[in-house]
Design goal:
The chain is built from two helices and four strands. The protein is an alpha+beta fold and about 140 residues long. It has a single domain, classed as Nucleoside Triphosphate Pyrophosphohydrolase. The protein has a two-stranded antiparallel sheet with strand order 1-4. Strands 2-3 form a two-stranded antiparallel ribbon. The longest helix has 16 residues.
């Protein structure tokens, strides 16, 4: 999981309390010529420092949001989530330029991870990963 960078507390209006830690799954834009699973693997590497391989596609999440910058347009987004298997790397060993996006990357046990994620759709992704691994025990090793 990652803890994305957020606005500094001093710039948040009417927020006198310390912010609760926001945890999310790595994700990002598909580069030209890249497939969605390649994007997932690249984004995990860039945002966590971990090199992984694809086990399975879990789901697509579709949603609409309004840009908080620039033109304030509504944006329709589809995010594809994959279950990946660790190959190598050290968690949170990311390039300095990624610190603009990622405050920290951390390992969280899969059991109970859904309670730590900030977004409902991502909590469902964790449940799908748990179900997949329970029915494919040979792949979880």
């Amino acid at each position: 999981m990652i803890e994305p960078q957020r606005e500094p507390e001093s710039s948040l209006k009417n927020d006198k309390k310390r912010q609760k830690q926001l945890l999310a799954l790595p994700k990002g834009l598909v580069d030209p010529g890249e497939k969605a699973d390649e994007t997932a693997i690249r984004e995990v590497r860039e945002e966590t420092g971990i090199i992984a391989t694809k086990l399975a596609k879990l789901t697509d999440i579709k949603y609409v949001y309004i840009r908080s910058w620039g033109d304030k347009q509504r944006v329709f987004k589809i995010v594809s989530f994959y279950l990946l298997k660790y190959q190598s790397g050290e968690i949170d060993q990311i390039k300095p330029e990624m610190r603009i996006e990622v405050k920290q990357a951390l390992w969280i046990p899969l059991v109970g991870a859904e309670r730590k994620l900030a977004y409902k759709g991502e909590r469902e992704v964790v449940k799908l990963a748990q179900e997949y691994l329970q029915s494919h025990t040979e792949e979880g090793r």
